[in-house]
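User: Please write out a complete single-protein record containing the residue sequence and its fold in token form, without commentary.

AI:
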Amino acid sequence: MARLLDVSQPRVSDLLRGKIDRFSVDTLIKLLGKAGADVRVVVCDKSSAA
């Protein structure tokens, strides 16, 4: 997994343990992309939020 994501093994351990506060949003999105996920960010105003 570390090789696929191009990060260290301790970083993978952080992810697997749910310690996402140790990652920036930008980094998390990049890691999802490297893992093959189709990442989309949708922004809407508060009045149209569910």
Q: What stands out?
A: The two ends are 35 Å apart (CA to CA). The longest helix spans residues 25-34. Residues 1 and 39 are 19 Å apart (CA to CA). The mean pLDDT is 92.
